[in-house]
Amino acid sequence: MASTFIRAAGHRRPGPSHGSTPLASFLQRLRLTGDGLGRIATRDYVYLSGWTGTPFTELHERLAKDPEWRTHVLNCSHNVVRDALDDFQRILLLDE
Asked: How far is it, in rounded angstroms, from Cα 54 to Cα 46?
């Protein structure tokens, strides 16, 4: 089975691991069943605003208005581990 790949406009990954993201990763929804979502104590969304053509702006704006979500903005590319690791770790550890 062949995979379909896309590359975000203006976004390049350096080094030998250069590759594309499968299209399905942008299209498939996460589906939680049962009471799984109710057991999650906090819901955080980290919006990575520093790359051209991000498809996540609308989702960030919607979640920012929802009191059940805490939203965070990092001005970096989609490679948050490379570009803003310390800031990302602080967000992940907010409730520790």
From this structure: 13
